[in-house]
Design a protein that fits this description.
By secondary structure, the protein is of the alpha+beta class. It is about 30% helix and about 30% strand. A hairpin with a 3-residue loop joins strand 3 (about 100-110) and strand 4.
């Protein structure tokens, strides 16, 4: 009996030793999975794009024209994405925008980086930063982008807190457009559509970042997922000017949401949650603010909307005064350089 007990003990010890040797190998797939998940759920730490030399010269008309739009990435089905990108490109070209501020900009295996596609086709410098997904891990990501006829300086991305979830991140993309009248800080963001308290916290983080970074006049654009009467919007409008309310003869209208992308022109929108704010206008004065991307087009015999949001179009003039307080004055050659300045992720 004692001999049997000794054999049993030896067998148990041998099994334990084998388990210790096998444990690292068994944990390896789990560790790799955790690493992969950490990359998928991580926003970009850097910005990519072409900051100078990729843009066609502005048409020389006075003033500044700005567009903002949540594009609707449409993951995972990417519903009508190629056709919708075509509609968006057509509208940008029609409006003659100098600056375009985009949210939910997709990168897909079939279409690549839509920000780069639009910039290349229409003649813009651009910067883009990933917010969610990862092109190397799941062949999809989405984020914010700035397209500009003018050189872009100091591009950076900041994650907004608090997070709404492990796989949901919200960021703000910032760059300075070097216009013939000086530097204009541009911020584009997309806040959570989750819990109101999380949205409010992100709005507070955004406000702090804008005040920390801006060096003069600034535009802050995006899908805020909050209505004008929400506490966070009431706080922001104490500091920033809501351009939809500030423009002459303006009539703020809902911007969301198109429930069926193939609906006709009579689709009813219910909420205003998309904004462009003006901060310290400097020499800029707002001439016009209206909706854009706000009607469907005939595509293949049916109707198609560019996005589930409508966008915003702003037209600014410049005061005759050239020395507005706080405004950066940087002279530039309005014609594009032959040398393109690229930044990679």
């Amino acid at each position: 009996m004692q001999t049997f007990g000794r054999y049993r003990l030896a067998a148990l010890l041998s099994l334990c030793s084998m388990n210790r040797r096998l444990l690292p190998a068994a944990l390896l797939p789990l560790l790799l999975l955790l690493f992969w998940l950490s990359q998928v759920s991580r926003p970009a730490g850097r910005v990519e794009g072409c900051t100078e030399g990729c843009a066609q010269a502005a048409d020389g008309s006075p003033g500044l024209r700005v567009l903002s739009l949540n594009m609707l990435h449409g993951f995972p089905a990417f519903t009508y994405l190629p056709q919708r990108v075509e509609l968006i490109a057509t509208e940008i070209e029609r409006e003659g925008a100098d600056i375009v501020l985009l949210q939910e900009v997709p990168w897909t295996r079939e279409g690549g980086n839509v920000a780069g596609v639009l910039a290349g086709r229409l003649g813009y410098n651009y910067v883009y930063a990933r917010a969610n997904g990862n092109r190397l891990a799941i062949f999809f990501e989405e984020g914010e982008a700035i397209l500009s006829r003018y050189p872009l300086r100091g591009a950076e991305v900041r994650e907004l807190s608090p997070r709404a979830g492990i796989f949901e991140h919200r960021v703000v993309l910032h760059a300075v457009a070097v216009t013939p009248r000086g530097g204009l800080d541009l911020f584009v963001t997309h806040l959570t559509n989750g819990k109101p308290e999380v949205n409010r916290g992100q709005a507070e983080t955004l406000l702090a970042f804008v005040e920390e970074r801006r060096g003069g006049p600034a535009l802050v654009a995006g899908d805020f997922n909050a209505t004008p009467d929400s506490p966070q919007l009431l706080e922001l409008t104490q500091m920033w000017q809501d351009t939809a309310l500030a423009a002459p003869d303006s009539s703020p209208l809902p911007t969301c949401c198109v429930e069926d992308l193939t609906a006709g022109p009579n689709e009813v929108l219910e909420k205003r949650i998309d904004y462009v704010f003006m901060v310290d206008a400097g020499s800029l004065h707002l001439r016009r603010a209206e909706r854009a991307f706000d009607e469907p087009s005939q595509v293949d015999g049916g109707w198609l909307w560019p996005s589930d949001h409508v966008g915003l179009f702003l037209e600014f003039g410049y005061d005759s005064e050239t020395g507005a307080r706080g405004r950066r004055t940087v002279k530039i050659d309005p014609s594009p350089s032959l040398d393109c300045t690229w930044i990679s992720p």
